[in-house]
Amino acid sequence: MISKLNNAHSLLVSVARLGLGLTVTEYCRENPPRPEMPLELYQYEGCPFCRKVREAMSRLDLAYISRSSAKGAGANRYFVSARAGKTQFPFLVDPNTGAELYESEAIIDYLAETYGGGRSALAKAVAPLSTLNSALAGGLRPRGLSSRLKKPRDAQPEQLLELYNFEASPFCRKVREVLDELELDALIQNVAKGSKRRPELVKRGGQMMVPFLVDPNTGRQLYESDDIVAYLRATYKGG
Fold it and tell me: How many angstroms separate the CA atoms of 60 and 55, rounded?
């Protein structure tokens, strides 16, 4: 019963955001971007500005390394402050071009121009309304805002966790929240509708369903959000 209520609660955010991040843009369906090195996004789930960037990356079919930067997290927040001079999120690092950017709108413009065939004038015009809506959606479910560890994580697992995901999925949201609460970085493999990465997921896991977690540190592979959340908490709660 609790799990069903949690799923319904998470779904409210997807509904409030009108399903943004559910499907890949037509341009990226035909021209799937595959940068040589994965982009890195310093972000956390409860941040409305971070949400807008994650939605854009889902729509552009971009994989990226999520650098968990929830309040109370240690190394990633320190990195951003030391690297760019202020602790502000989201912060994008693109090792393919050398670009490093703050500000969600600047990041979305950059991603669209570099990997998505450009951004429409309409999308830019409605950006302030999207920001307001994202903040309201976050108010519906204020989770993934802060670390729940007793002390900041000393080090990440030896190998990056992998999460097959798309932004609009309420089940994936539950997993991303826990990743931030446990200060866990992860390689996010976006597989929104129309993604050319979907056959890879089916090959690895056996079915087209998200979320799907791959932990190369233990060899575990899991579907089902509740199973993944329980696994992460049992395996990595110690920091």
Answer: 9
